[in-house]
Structures are given as structure tokens and as C-alpha cells.
Amino acid sequence: MMKKVRLGIVGLGAQGGAYAEFIKEGRVNNMEVGAICDVDPEKKAVAEEKYPDVPFYDNYIEMMESGNVDAIVTCVPHYLHPEMGIEALKRDIHALVEKPAGVYTKQVKELNKFAATKPEVTFGIMFNQRTNELYQKVKEIIDNGEIGEIRRTNWIITTWWRPQGYYDQSAWRATWEGEGGGVLVNQAPHQLDLLQWIAGMPKKVYSNVKYGYQRDIAVEDEVTAMFDYGNGATGVFITATHDVMGTDRFEILGDNGKIVVDDSKTVTIKRLKKPESEMSATMSMQDVMEIFMGKGPGEMYDEEVIEFESVWGAQHTAVMENFAANVLDGTPLLAPGSDGINGVALANAIHLSSWLGKEVELPLDEDLYLAELNKKIKEEKSE
After folding, report:
1. Where in the chain does DSSP place strands (E)?
2. pTM score, two decimals?
3. Strands 248-254, 94-97: parallel, antiparallel or unpaired by DSSP?
4. Is 200 left (phi over 0), alpha (psi -120 to 50) or beta?
5. CATH number attached to the domain at 5-126+313-336
6. 139 pLDDT more than 70
7. First and final CA of the chain: distance in angstroms?
8. What is the pLDDT of residues 289-342, one digit of tens each?
9. Architecture of domain 130-309+343-382
């Protein structure tokens, strides 16, 4: 019986380097670094110095066929995630795909379709925020029906400030050809995943997106999107990379209460003593006047405030540990790889709505999206 999963790290950049360090430090107790792969010759010298006993490859197929790895993690540009995932699964190598699962749903669908033919091979995605106890608690409250049916979601997440120098680090960054988008595919996929994980997928999306608004880039750095969930409920999602002060506030309003998450650290749960519809139908105008005049909220709802602590890297290592546990003993995955398509679909719909200047329906027209994306890539090349 395998005791530890030997992980092949594809791409020894910032993320791949962090994972290698986590494992080296013993923070993932059921995993070891089996091999490292990078096409950059300079990374070979880095790997030899930091991980002298770990085999190094410049071709990930060779690494997977070497017998040195049981699984891979794809710390490479987004377009490559589906292709590498498929190549791993083909060889019965377990695949942990970085977020996003891909740039467009058509390629992610291919990955999911192939993965479905290999149910015995583990396929996960690095949605580390799903291991965050705060968001697990929010999902539990929604799933239990504690605040009733959702009426509205609002998430403003502008804590992704990035200076121009960040984008100038490499030629592929913040380009349609290299990265496939901006804040929606680089920084905010975690929130897009959490939003659909907790509140479900919308039926329609309408967006106002700014491309190169406050940064000299081709892709989006400012997004305002409106969701229609198809049952009367609506949502608003706002994200940006130019707000140096940043806000992270997620509100979910239900028939029987409200959840407010501040800075991904504090959850305030307000549970109404009577459903809002009942209050509306039964309250006298005198009762209403008392509320307007500042009647104590304690008479209308109970309030619970929960604080959560965050430890850097702990969420990533938790996903890695859970992934390895699934390989070793079948522990259920917190973030199944097949879930990755939902966040990509949301990002695609937000882009497409802004490109077409109209509301788009989900599931979206995948061929139309790809055609429009290819137009952006062509325009970028001709500039």
C-alpha cells in the first residue's frame, strides 16, 4: 500500500515553488515531492540547490512516464491546465489542476469528459477557499435553509490590487493569448467558485467590464456583473485590481435572514424571528413606525457573529492533503476537478456579455465565446 503520494510539480514558479516548500517542510503529511518539471533552464539550478534529491525534467510527459510520480499539480499558464490534466489521467496519473480549470468552457468540458472515463484516477482542483471553515459554515447555513430561500447575493471583492510592475513581469501575463483574461481568470476564480458553490449558478448574466481601465493591459481590471438566478433572485459581483484599499464583503439575503461576510474573517448571521413575508403581511403600521423609529433589532432577529483565523498556506496544504487522502484511501474530495467548469462558465459569461453588450444566458454559447476570444487574441497580435 502506498503511504505517501509522490507529487510531480509542473512549473516551479511562485505557486509551484510554494507547494514544493510546503511539502519539504512536512506540512502535507501524506505527500512527498516525486519530481519537478520546468521548461526554464534557470529553474533547474534552483531545483538542484533547494531539492537536490528530487529528479528534474524539462518535459512533463517524460516526468509522468518516469515512474517517479503518482500525481501532478499544474502550476502553468491557464490554457495548459486541461491539456496537462488529460495527459496525466491518460497515464493513470492523478491530476490536481490549478485554478482556473481552463480559459474557456469548451476545453474544460473535454477535460471533464475524459476524467469521467477514468473514475478510478483522482481528479481535483486547487479551490483552496473551500477548505476555509468560514465559507464551509456559510454553505452549511444556506444548505440547512436557516435563512430561507436566497433573494439576493452581493459580493464586492476588490482586494486584488496589482501595480503595473506586476503585469510587466512577463510577456504572457495579462494578455488574451497568454492568460486568457485578467482579474476574472487570475485573481477572482476562487470567489466565482465559492459564489456558485454556496448560492448556485445563475441563469443569466449582464456585465459592465473595463479592459485596461487603470493599468496598461489588454485584459480586464474592473468588473461589475449582475446575475439573474431565474427564480426572482438576483446577484451583483464586483471585482478590480486597482483599488489599493480594497473591500471584501459578501452578503446573502434570504426570506428568513441575512449573512454578511467581512474580509473573509468575520461572519454575521441575522436570523429573523418571523419570515419577512409574514412580517409584511401581519404588521400594523404602528409596529412599522416603531421599527422606523429605532425599535431594538433584537425583537426582530437574533444575531450571531463568528470570527475565523486564517493561516497562510494552510488552505492550500489542506487541499493537497485531502487530494492525497482521496488517492490513498478514497476520502471524498473537497474540490472535485469536475467542479472547475462552473467558475470558468461564469467568467466566460461575464466577458461575453460585455463584448456583445447584452445579457447572456447560461449555459452559454461555447463556440461564440471561443470565436470572440480568438478575435481578441488576433487584435492583440496586430497591435
Report:
1. 5-10, 31-37, 56-57, 71-74, 94-97, 123-125, 150-157, 204-211, 220-228, 234-240, 248-254, 257-262, 266-272, 301-307, 360-361
2. 0.96
3. unpaired
4. left
5. 3.40.50.720
6. yes
7. 56
8. 888 887 766 688 999 999 998 766 799 999 999 999 999 999 999 999 999 999
9. 2-Layer Sandwich (3.30)
